Amino acid sequence: MDPAVVLVLCLSSLLLIFLWRQSSGRGKLPPGPTPLPIIGNILQIDVKNFKNTISNFSKVYGPVFTVYFGMKPAVVLHGYEAVKEALIDHGEEFSGRGLLPISERTSKGLGIIFSNGNRWKEIRRFTLMTLRNFGMGKRSIEERVQEEARCLVEELRKTKASSCDPTFILSCAPCNVICSIIFQRRFDYKDQNFLTLMERLNKNAKIISSSWMQICNNLPVIIDYLPGIHNKFLKNVALTKSYILEKIKEHQETLDVNNPRDFIDCFLIKMEQEKHNSQSEFTMENLVNTVSDLFAAGTETTSTTLRYGLLLLLKHPEVIAKVQEEIDRVIGRQRSPSMQDKSHMPYTDAMVHEIQRYIDLVPSSLPHAVTCDIKFRNYLIPKGTTILPSLTSVLHDDKEFPNPEKFDPGHFLDESGNFKKSNFFMPFSTGRRICLGEGLARMELFLFLTSILQNFNLRSLIDPKKLDATPVSSGFISVPPLYKICFIPV
């Protein structure tokens, strides 16, 4: 048969399958923009500013609507009520993880971030228990963060008040905290292995938020058959996993089952306990992926928040002045900040919350998926359907946070200047899939930012009013623009 005829028949068949699936399933899903065959709604989506696209769609189709990424539908939840109703009120049904095509290549459903079902429950339960045993939220982890905060301050002193790009230094601190939990060691900021790891993490954070990666996730055939920066991303992940496997083998050689030193030791002991269980989730491959997840997630999100936060503080010197007044009154200049100080520092606490709210780090959260067919707001959402909660629509709700596009710690203060909690504060998402490291991240942000402002004044070489805090991309994560800063010792 003529190749051209075969091609036409194949394309026609794909078109018919798509139309059949659309007509048979779309009536059960929420309304949304009309998708094109094969490519779905990709031409209607601004891959550089996905959250704006979602906001515009919600004005037309309401708080729950459907968009097609290629031939796959995703149900978007827009606004606090829709997000709460799904992720909290129906938490179990919405607790699945929607797999991104690029994550399918890297994790293969293993680890903790992109796993599902019993595997996810077992690994998450074990990880939470292990981190708690090692003191997450307790004194021992706090001491590690305080130690790293002191190291961070010393590294910033070495800049000698000269203008510098803070990206690398601010990435090292949270990375070292994770390393102390996983590998039982921190690295010197000049250590070559550490430098290499940091370079890969920083590079991958930029790649995954690029327009090209959004296109790859919408049209996954690109990943396997076309060149592009996604191949660099996959290579970086593979190299990081290779390094982790090397560290695991070192742990195996020196393991003392009666004296676990860190997370890897605890996992290896669990593997030994379950070695006769053929269905066990505690395997070497799962260990590598879980450590990789903890390593990447625990480093890049916190470091990006720190970097973005300092840029916002540069733009708002009046906020720095109020925080430093509170530091002088509560802590002074001689001792290190502690988590006990936070309850006596409402403005500083509000400042940290406002940074997280304002920057909207992960605009659409990580994709969820429904674990069964579910009737939701009179729509029938089939099992496995991807769910995208718009965290932007919650964090920037103009009724909860008046003038949400303005950076203002007052969003988290009452009339008396006391800290004011908000149910709309969801930078770590919410429900069953809430970020595993929320407690650690909150601790790091408070202690690192307070330590920096305790020891330094921040200065920009250009007029603070002219600093641009617009993210350079807001696809998967909101990435702040590059900037220079001077750390002037107090």
UniProtKB/TrEMBL annotation:
InterPro entries according to UniProt: Cyt_P450, Cyt_P450_CS, Cyt_P450_E_grp-I, Cyt_P450_sf, Cytochrome_P450_fam2
Residues reported in the UniProt entry to bind heme: C435
Keywords noted in UniProt: Endoplasmic reticulum, Heme, Iron, Membrane, Metal-binding, Microsome, Monooxygenase, Oxidoreductase, Signal
Obligatory cofactor(s): heme
Stretch forming the signal peptide: 1-25
Annotated GO biological process: organic acid metabolic process; terpenoid metabolic process; xenobiotic metabolic process
Subcellular localization, as worded in the UniProt entry: Endoplasmic reticulum membrane; Microsome membrane
GO molecular function annotations of the record: heme binding; iron ion binding; oxidoreductase activity, acting on paired donors, with incorporation or reduction of molecular oxygen, reduced flavin or flavoprotein as one donor, and incorporation of one atom of oxygen
Name of protein: Uncharacterized protein
